[in-house]
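Cast an eye over my tokenised protein here and flag anything odd:

===
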Amino acid sequence: MSHMQSVPGGVEQEALAEEKELVEGYRPEKGRKKIATGEGRLAFFLVAPTVILLGVIVGYPIVKAVINSFQKDPGLNTATGFFNQGGQFAGLDNYKTWLLQQCPTPSGGTVKCPPGTLASEFWASVGFTLGVTIVAVALETVLGMIMALMMHKAFKGRAVVRAAILIPWAIPTAVSAKLWQVIYAPDGLADKVLGWFGISTVQWNEKWPARIAIVITDTWKTTPFMALLILAGLQGIPTELYESAKVDGATAWQRFWRITLPLVKPALAVALIFRSLDTLRMYDLPAILTGGANGTSTLSILVVKQIQSGPNSASALSTITFVFIFACAFVLVKLLGANIMPRPAAKAKAR
């Protein structure tokens, strides 16, 4: 019994030692702090075109959107009867419209945004976007881990199974949304399947059924992506660790908890960050499936709707969305990426 009780600790130490050895194999020499002058110049000339191109393609729209967010929208001035071309400095008015729910009035003042306006849907859209991200990514992670573990096993026809699992992810989102629209139709496949379990017909166009439908559809489509990234991490784990654990008498759960999960953590963290950011900016799936109605409007859908009535106010909302997603990315990287790789003892103590 004493030998069996010491198994998890021994297996875990062996797994961590193996991971440390792999990481340290890629660590540069301590004495080499700077790149040689020739290599540095070559690296600069190779990277500079990409940096400039990204600055033009990514940086310019962001800066332009921030500038426009401080300007008034064009429109009819009901107080004077003249058309306002917009472009005047508006200060933080556009941001107050979204964050504080203060809509402008013809007299120049502000009132609480009435129900039915896009601004009144802002905080509901924030909550829905966060809720879908948390639920969908959690389901995709669990199902993706199960699928990756299944595909990692050696069995006949494994290559065919791996290819078939990737089909939902390969289908364009617009096609997937239309496909599931047919499934959720009245007396459609979803209602028939639920009827087998004695569940009455579900009105999928109502608030909560529509939200559940979006989560199910997104989970079905992107779980293969999670499984693919996790599978890549599983294939990097040496089989000798599992063989040693079996010899020591470790159970399947102990091998998963002490070997698989710690060593697949880098790939799992990347998958979680990628999927979370992708879901936070989701537009096409709910836009096609529900049209953003009945509490299913995401921030991206709100931005697109606002562009039609006020581009400068939409720029403010785009800036808020950008900052919101950036903050979520920063938190995810800190939570999931801070301790993925082990640090040397001396460096850790210094920090």
About this structure: Residues 76-112 form one domain. The first helix runs from residue 2 to 5. The radius of gyration is 26 Å. The first strand starts at residue 75 and ends at 76.
